[in-house]
Amino acid sequence: MQVKNLISTLWRSKLILSLVVLFFAASLISPVDSDGSRIFLESGNLLNILRQVSITGILAVGMTLVILTGGIDLAVGSVMAFGATLCAMLLTLDESHNGLWVSGLGLGTVAALLISAMIMAALYPKRTSIDSKRPSLGLTITIPSILIIVCVSAAVYYFFQQQNNAPIVIILLSVISSCALLGGVSGLLVSKGKLQAFIATLAMMVATLGLARLMAGQDQSVFPIYSGINVSESFDVLRQPVWGIPVPGLIFLSVVVIFSIFLNRLRLGRYIYAVGGNERAAFLSGIPVDRVKIWVYALSGALSGLAGILYCAQYQQGKPDAGAGMELDAIAAVVIGGANLMGGKGSITGTLIGVLIFGVLSNILQLNNVDSNTQLVLKGLIIVVAVLVQQFDWQKLITIFDTMKKSKD
Amino acid sequence: MSVIRCLKPAFLLLIFISLNATAAEYRIGFSQVTTTEPWRVLFNKQLRKAVKQHDNVELYIADGQDRTEKQVADVRVFIQQKVDAILIAPKESAGLVSVVSEAMDAGIPVIVLDRKISGDNYTQFIGGDNLAIGRQAGQAALKLLGGKGHAKGNIVEIWGGMGSTPAHERHQGFAEALASEAGVKWVVERQDGDWKQDRAYDIMSTALRANKKIDLVYAHNDPMAFGAALAARDAKRFKDTYFLGVDAIPKEGGLWVKRGFLTATFVYPTPGVKALEQVLKLLNGEQISKTISLPTQTIDKDSVDLYLKNHK
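Above: the input entities. Below: the C-alpha cells describing the complete assembly.
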C-alpha cells in the first residue's frame, strides 16, 4: 500500500520532481568559482535565470490560457514585438509620430468596449446565463461605441502630440490595450469566424508583423532607447532590481500568481477549463463559449504587450522582428508544463515549471560554455523527455506493484 | 503622414506599371534581399542618395522579402522591363544563378552585391571582406590586450548565426590574428547570438556570472556588442571590459562608439554607391573588373566624429 501511495504522490508531483532533478544535476556539473562556491547556485545566477525567462514566461502564461480552451496562439511573438516597437516609438516621440494613431485606437477601443459593456449591463440588468440568445443590441451599442472609439483615439492622439514626455503609465496602458485589441481580433476570428485557432492566429502572426513594420516605417527597422538621453530615466525602473530581485522577474511571478488565482477561483477561469474540456457540453450548460474565447485571446494579447514593454526596457530597443520564434518557446514551455494541446488540461504552475526547466537548462549549458548547436539538440531532447515522462502510464506501474504484492500474499 | 506611408505600396505599384513609359536615360533595377535590417536600410538609403545626384538615372528597388523565389520573380520582372542594368543583393548563392544567367543572356549586365552567387556568369561582384574585418578586429584586440607577444586576457566571442558564412569568416580572421598569443584565453566561444541584441545580452549576463574577469568582448555585429555592453553595465562591470563590434552603421555602432558603449567597431561597407559608379562606367562603355573588394575602416573614439559627420 505504501509503495502505491509513494508512486501516486510521485506521479502527481512528477513535474516538480523533474525540475528538482535537473536542478541537482545542474549544481553537480556547475563550474566552480575561484573561492570554491558553485556558480550555478549563487543567488545572482539564480536571479539571472529568473530574469532571463521572464519575457518568455509571460508569453507562456497567456499561451496556457489559450491552450486550455483547446486553441493555440501563434501570434504572441509578433504581438510582443509589435508592443515593443510601439512602446519604443511612444517613448521616443519626438523622433516619430507614427505610433500615435495605433495607441489612440488601442486605448480608444478598449475604453469603448468597457463603456458599452457598462451600457449593456444597465440596459439588460438581469440576463440569466441560460438564454444563450442574447437580445439584439443593434445600433444602440454600435453607434455610441464607434463614437467613443473616435473620441478617445483623437483625445489620446492630441494628448501625445501636446506632450513630449507623456506619462509613462499612459504609454504602457496604450501599449497593453493595443496588444489586447490584436489578441481580441484573433479571438473574434476563432469564435465568431469559426476559423481554426492555428489558422486564425497564424494569419494574425503574419499580419501583426506587417503592421509593426508599416508602423515603424520603411527607413526605421529598430527604435533604440537610451535612458537619460532620449527616454526619461523612470522607464529604467522596469529593468532594475527591487529588493535584489530584478523587476521583470517580479512582474513575471506576479503574473503567475494572479493568473493561477484567476484560473482556479474566478468564474471565467473555470469556464476556460470547461470550454477546453468539452466545448459542446459547456455551451449546452449555458457557458458563453464565444465570449470566453475572445477573452482568452485578448488576455494573451495583453500579456504579450506586457512582455513587449519588458523587452523594450530590458534590451533598450523596440523592433518589429523581435519576437520571431518566441511563440514556439512559449508553446514548448506550456507543453513541458503538462498542458494538453487538445485543451482542458494544464495549469499555470505547470507552465511556470516548464519555463524554469528551460531556463535552468540553457543557463547551466551556457555556464559550462557548451556549443550553441549542442544546446539546441539538448533542448529538443528535453521537450521529448518531458512529454514522455508525462505520458508514461504510472497507474499501470501501480497495478503491477499491486499484483506483485498479491502474489506474495 | 501615416496615411501617405500606407499608400506607399500602391504608389510603388503605379510606378512599377508606368516603368516602361518613363524616359530616363538609364534605368536600373535593384533586387534587394530584405529591407528590414538596419544595414540593408542604410544600403538602400545610400544608394538612393547617390542616384539622386544623377539626373539621367532611374532606380527601381524591389524588396525580396528575404525569400529567394521572390527575388527570382523580381529579377524576371526587370528582364521583362528591359532595364539597362540589374543590381542584385542575393539571399543565397545557389538559387539565383539561373535567373542571373537569364538576364545575362538577355544582354543585361548584372552586378552582384554583398553576397556571392555560385559560378561566374555575372558582370561584377562587389562586397566587403569579412575575413579582413575579422583580422582587423583581431589586430585591434591584440593592441588593447597588451600588444603582440604580450597580449593577455579573457575573451568572450559572441557569434552571429552559427550557420552563416559572414559569422564564420569574422570568427576566422579574428582567431587567426590572436592564434599565437599564449596569454589570451577564450572563456566563451561558439555561443550563438543570432545577430540579435537581446540574445547577446543574455549570453553576456550568464558569462559574467561564470567568469570573474572578462577583458574583451568581440561580437560579430554591433547590436550584439551593444547588448553585451548593456549586460555588463547592468552587472556593474562595464568598466573592466573592452567591447568590439562590426558593421559601424552610423545610427548604431557609430553612435555607440561615440557614447562610449563600444570601444571600437569595424565598417562593413555597403556596396551601393560603388555599384552605381561601376554601372555608369559600364554603360558609358568602359571596362570594369570582375571583383571589387571594399576596404574596411576602424571606428574608435578618435575617428568616430569625422565618420559620423561624413555619414549623416
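Note for the figure: The longest helix of chain B spans residues 2-17.
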